[in-house]
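hey so u asked for the seq, here:
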Amino acid sequence: MLNVGVFAYAPMKSILMGTLMSQPDIYLSICTSNVREVFSHPFGPSDILIVEDQLLKDNQSVQSTFARLTCRKFLIGITHDLACARRAISLGAVDVVEEATAGQEIMALLEPYVRNEVDRPSEVIAVYSAKGGVGKTTLALNLAWAMADMTSHPVALLDMDIFGDIGSMLLERPPISIVDVIQGLENGMSEDKALQSLFMSKKLGLTIVPASTNPQQAEIIRRDHISQVINMVKTTHAYVILDLPAGLTENNLAALDAADQIVVVALPEQVSLKTVARSMEILERLYAERLTIALNRTDSGTGITSDDVGRMLGRPVSFSLASGGVAPVKYSNQGIPLVQADRKNALSVDILRMANYFVTESEGLHRPRLKPVLHSTKS
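ran it, structure tokens below
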């Protein structure tokens, strides 16, 4: 489903609402003439914002802020007017729609984007380990962040760990947890409303759904809830990253059933590897074609090589990840993902390589890129 927003005065709003709301594959997420509402709305990079030129003209002081929105923008104005053309260029508009015929023309322009969202299958990537403390959550968060930066398609990160701490690792703490979503759906909330309530990082357009801050609430989560939430998020996101807890519980198996790729995280340590090896016996029987091994902290000097790990786990290591030194903890304490804070860090480089693998595998080498590379905040 394509998410579309409208920023226009009342007459144009009425025209566009009548056109857009009749389309089954378009979700009108916001329709307003209020500048503040537009800037506070969590637009993603594949979303579309339709802007009326007259309203933009009447709010010249915020035109540069509109230009910085990461979504695709269409301007409705007088196509032969030179000032309108200049504003369209400043806005970074994909196209200009003649205001007199906007109601008839807009769907022809949106149709390719609608078709792209409807036809594109979503890819679910589960990050799992049989043992805690292996850097799984750090990997899941940074992998999702890196993939969101690499693709023009929407990415979501779901924290399925009842003791998960993804929310605490971000400066922008997501207010809506997976338990909140489940309770809302149980109480009759529509899936469209539930999707609209999810937190999206303003820095990147990455949807993040953390675990509940109250572990006791985890008791309400059932296997069917897990499947429902994942399937719901898949309808509006091209990539869904799952951060799973340790162990092969019923809820974990529901998440793994939904996954297209399962990244099993291990450390080059005997105790950790023995635990992972036991779970691999089950995973191989159930999900053999979806499994990949990510060996974390390969530079820790334990004397166990990637080849050793491959022999112990019965399949080769697909991704080798450096420890990254103190940087992962340092930036986590500051609420900044490592791949944003320090892209040259050894662990960042390895995670970016992994993200590139998944995006390129899905979209091909010549994927579209609509966003600039994130700049390091490292001082």
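The chain has two domains: 2-118, 122-363. Residues 366-379 have pLDDT under 50 and may be disordered.
lmk if thats what u needed
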